[in-house]
């Protein structure tokens, strides 16, 4: 009965390694014992679904991360869904879930759409080729959804003006900041589309969003600095309602984001838009 010992130093090696413990005992331990006991259980070579469900329900962040990383842990769709819900506030957990080869495609999509751009790109960088292809497919579908929604505003006049400025080399980062500070929304969107080489409908959708991450990607990809990003955020719905903590987090994410990663995402959006456009033609 060493597995039931309250002293984790005694129970840990048994819980992690013993193949002689009945599932009913594992369930009882998972229901009653400490987080340290649950962490040891999460590292077993094989874990049946009933035990994983209990670990997910009772486990803390460390337990969930360990469980998600353990490919010997059997996860039902409901278990995956519960983990994804918990991962909404834990980027590292989201990465570990997203790298599991047994995650159902529908739930992978839910996970990717619920995570930040930074987490999505870390997943792309870490995934094996087959999983990377699946992640790229899901992100491509999301990009097609974005490009398929037309802009609600009439950007035709602003778009013509910005294209003319851009073609003559008279459109730069400073103009964009001026548009943002003057709340000239159509000019801001049109200038972003020109300078970042992104379809205007996509830019409109991103600026209308409550999420700040896509704007960080846009600005980093063309080498702009934080003051420019902040000027754009200030006219976004999500920026107007963002707390100081959220803005601080956006700054940290922007500083950590590499230009290479941002440019890769940008190419992704551009390719998907033109593929979608050629399909519609």
Describe this structure in words.
By secondary structure, this protein is mainly alpha-helical. It folds into two domains: 111 residues; 125 residues, no CATH class. The chain has 19 helices and no strands. The N and C termini lie far apart (70 Å).
Q: How many DSSP-defined strands?
A: 0
Oligomer: single chain
Order of helices and strands: HHHHHHHHHHHHHHHHHHH
Q: How many domains, in number, for the residues?
A: 2
The SS-based structural class is mainly alpha
* Largest sheet report: none
How much helical structure, as a percent, in the residues? over 70%
**Which shape, going by the Cα principal axes?**
elongated
| Helix count from the secondary structure assignment | 19
Low-pLDDT residue intervals, each spanning 5 or more residues? none
Question: What value does the Rg take, in angstroms?
Answer: 24 Å
| Share of residues in strands | under 5%
How far apart are the termini? 70 Å
Mean pLDDT: 86
Please describe the topology of this protein:
Blueprint lengths: L7 H10 L5 H10 L2 H7 L7 H10 L2 H9 L7 H11 L3 H8 L6 H10 L2 H10 L2 H19 L8 H12 L5 H9 L3 H12 L3 H9 L4 H9 L4 H8 L3 H4 L3 H13 L2 H22 L1
Helix pairs in contact: 1-3, 2-4, 3-5, 5-7, 6-7, 7-9, 8-10, 9-10, 10-19, 11-13, 12-13, 13-14, 15-19
Task: Name a few traits of the molecule.
281 residues; mainly alpha; 0% strand
């Amino acid at each position: 009965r060493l597995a039931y010992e309250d002293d984790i130093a005694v129970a840990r090696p048994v819980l992690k390694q013993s193949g002689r413990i009945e599932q009913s005992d594992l369930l009882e331990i998972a229901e009653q014992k400490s987080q340290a006991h649950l962490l040891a259980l999460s590292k077993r070579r094989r874990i049946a679904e009933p035990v994983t469900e209990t670990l997910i329900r009772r486990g803390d962040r460390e337990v969930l991360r360990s469980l998600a990383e353990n490919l010997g842990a059997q996860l039902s769709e409901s278990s995956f869904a519960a983990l994804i819900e918990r991962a909404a506030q834990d980027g590292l957990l989201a990465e570990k879930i997203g790298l599991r080869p047994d995650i159902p495609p529908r739930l992978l999509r839910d996970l990717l759409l619920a995570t930040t751009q930074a987490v999505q790109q870390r997943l792309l960088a870490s995934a094996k080729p087959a999983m990377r292809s699946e992640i790229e497919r899901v992100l491509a579908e999301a990009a097609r959804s974005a490009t398929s929604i037309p802009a609600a505003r009439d950007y035709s006049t602003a778009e013509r003006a910005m294209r003319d400025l851009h073609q003559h080399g008279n459109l730069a980062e400073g103009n964009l900041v001026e548009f943002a500070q003057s709340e000239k929304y159509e000019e801001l969107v049109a200038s972003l589309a020109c300078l970042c080489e992104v379809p205007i409908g996509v830019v409109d959708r991103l600026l209308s969003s409550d999420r700040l991450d896509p704007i960080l990607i846009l600005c980093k990809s063309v080498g702009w600095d934080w003051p420019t990003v902040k000027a754009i955020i200030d006219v976004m719905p999500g920026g107007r309602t963002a707390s100081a903590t959220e803005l601080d987090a956006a700054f940290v994410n922007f500083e950590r984001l590499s230009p290479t990663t941002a440019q890769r995402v940008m190419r992704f959006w551009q390719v998907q838009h033109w593929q979608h456009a050629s399909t519609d033609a």
